[in-house]
Structures are given as C-alpha cells and as structure tokens.
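2024-03-11 09:14:02 DEBUG pipeline.ingest accepted 1 chain
2024-03-11 09:14:02 DEBUG pipeline.ingest length=118
2024-03-11 09:14:03 DEBUG pipeline.predict start
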Amino acid sequence: MPEGYLPIFIFLVVATLFPLVLLLVMKFIRPQIPSQTKLEAYECGIHAASNARGRYTVRFYIIAILFVIFDVETVFLFPWAVRYKQLGWFGVSEVSVFLAILVVGYIWALKKGAFEWV
C-alpha cells in the first residue's frame, strides 16, 4: 500500500525543490545593478502623481465582494447544465430555487444601494 504513494511523494519533492532551485540559480545569474530608475514604481518614465497607499472607500470593497459572491453562481450552474437531461424536472426545480435566492440577494443589495457608484 505505501509503495502506491511513492510517485506522489516524488512529485511533491520535485514540485517543492524546482522553484527553490530556480530562484537560487537566478539570484546568482541576474544582473544586480540597482539604479534610481529601476527602483521607481513605474519604469515607463512617468512619475507617480501621489502616494499609492491612499485610502479607498468601503463601497469599493463591498462591490468587489458582491461581484465575487454573485459571480460564483456560474460555478454552481455548470454541473447542473452538464447533467440537465438526467436530472429532469427535479433539477429544474432545484435550479429555480437557487436562482430565486440569488434574485432575492440582488434585490436586497439593490435596495441597500450597494450598486450605486457615486
């Protein structure tokens, strides 16, 4: 039984050592000539207008989280679409309930004003 796990352990060792060895080798190969241009945030010649560590409104994060939450629905709809014919009306009813819950969530977020950008 343990001999069946040997290829997995070999793969884990190779997957761990490969990036470490490459990083170590590249540290010695790459040119190390720091200059003011190389140390700037943007190496395109355009100077930064302000500090990049400015504050963002909480609304930006709320919209991002809402996008992630409501976009994940496609991950849950894909298996249903693959097995649509085998599930029959039972699958249709389950997806209808799922989509109804999502619509209720959209309406709630809309009434809370989460989709307003200004």
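2024-03-11 09:14:41 DEBUG pipeline.report The chain has a mean pLDDT of 83.
2024-03-11 09:14:41 DEBUG pipeline.predict end
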